[in-house]
Design brief:
Radius of gyration of chain A: 17 Å
Number of strands of chain A: 12
Structural class of chain A: alpha+beta
Number of helices of chain A: 7
Strand order of the largest sheet of chain A: 1-10-6-12-4-3-2
Distance between the termini of chain A: 34 Å
Largest interface: A-B, 27 and 27 residues
Oligomer: homodimer
Largest sheet of chain A: 7 strands, antiparallel
Strand content of chain A: 15-25%
């Protein structure tokens, strides 16, 4: 999996790449079933909304075989190695549910703002990859990106501890308005298996999900090994301290698991 | 302005018609400027969100010349006459702001549910027309429709007095989920001047607007004259009691106002 010159140029200018259907529907369906099983577990890595429904499962790559494989998937790891120019480690790994009817807002923020302030990550040489496990539509709380907002570094932010159950460094309205006047606003939507890769400084948000359809997305935060974090204030399963370079698996590492599970179900 | 046979068939099956750019950008811009002037007025017809920003201006066709004309516009009145088979009166007229950052949710509901319960409207022989005064995108709280949900009459509903400042008869989650499993979910998006006409029983909602762009929409609720309301529990400027048939104006009735204002500005 290699990005083209056009991809690299677009990423540099716009701050993100949308790759529809990078994974198959079967691969996405297996990961979704696994996510639902994880959400049913009572464990500290699973955070809930005020209503009690699951919001985020952290670090599933450390306790689930499908997610262990996803965390080393060449379709995700290799493009980011290409963009950052060195080997990577997993800084954070989460499965965000955005439940039907109850999924709450994520206010406007930059991911690197949190990594810098909370984790002491030296440079924005890390980025998020979003993998859609369910179809994302305008109706179920799509990710909203402000193109080109990654070009001006880290903006001032306030620590929002009130809007939802998850603390977040959020940008003020004046900054968001100015950036959106300049860069517009995009909401990549598409089928399960689609992927968005976005710069750590790209400003984004997502609205509540009032629809009857849930909208589960996996996020891998991949960081250049030489850029590892220096402050350990958050739980180890939120901001990992294992800086071992990721060795990508084979391209069919999830496909073979789909086949194995299918064969077992047919027995 | 006449709907085609294909339009009529689609409306009957799906419960709505989306007509992008039915009005010009100039016509929409004039109506938007007028709406903003109205929102600035302290009058009982202007309702506000809990934050204080304007949510809805009622009955602007009774105190604003551009909206008086819009309420008699042949591009809106004639298609609904065609669908309902007789002359119409204006049951309700509102301009909904959905302000940037602060615009609140409208929960899942049927408009005719309210007209029946609160106003004693005999039959669902009335319908809403939504005219976009600003671009509607996936990001700024688009209208969400459940296609074909108009075919099963009025569903049970609870009177929601808590979610927002506007009381609404809202459907339960089980019903919404079942209908969306059957009919899917659509979010018509498009430029200022676009129009959605939808059946009084079509189930719809709209999410909060977390974007930095406002999303103003005018709603005309047009009712067949013979189907006029029989209960007068709501304010006259919310549920009108003047059942005089609307006489449509000429197609350029707004265009000539745009020209007149432009000429005056150039003096």
């Amino acid at each position: 999996m290699k990005l083209t010159e056009a991809d690299l140029k677009r990423f540099e200018e716009e701050g993100y790449l949308f790759l529809p259907s990078l994974f198959s529907l079967d691969e996405a369906a297996m990961l979704l079933a696994e996510a639902q099983a994880i959400y049913g577990q009572e464990r500290e890595e699973v955070w809930r909304e005020s209503s009690g429904v699951a919001r985020t499962a952290f670090a599933a790559h450390t306790y689930s075989e499908p997610y262990r494989r996803l965390g080393r998937h060449p379709r995700l790891v290799e493009p980011v190695e290409q963009l950052l120019g060195e080997q990577l480690y997993m800084h954070q790994f989460k499965i965000n549910a955005k439940a039907a009817f109850d999924g709450e807002v994520w206010q406007w923020h930059q991911d690197y703002g949190t990594w810098q302030r909370d984790d002491g990550m030296p440079e924005p040489r890390a980025m998020n990859i979003a993998l859609f496990l369910e179809e994302v539509t305008p109706a179920n709380g799509p990710l909203l990106f402000i193109p080109r907002s990654h070009q001006q570094g880290v903006f001032e932010a306030g620590h929002d501890l009130e809007t939802t159950s998850y603390p977040l460094w959020t940008l003020d309205r004046e900054t968001v308005s100015k950036l959106a006047q300049e860069g517009g606003l995009e909401a990549p939507v598409g089928p399960p298996g689609s992927v968005v890769m976005f710069h750590g400084n790209l400003v984004h948000a997502s609205p509540p999900n009032i629809s009857p359809f849930s909208r589960t997305i996996v996020y891998l935060s991949l960081c250049a090994v030489s850029n590892h974090i220096t402050k350990h204030t958050r739980k180890e399963w939120i901001a990992h301290r294992d800086f071992t370079p990721i060795e990508p698996l084979a391209d069919d590492c999830l496909g073979e698991l789909v086949e194995a599970r299918r064969a077992r179900a047919a027995e």
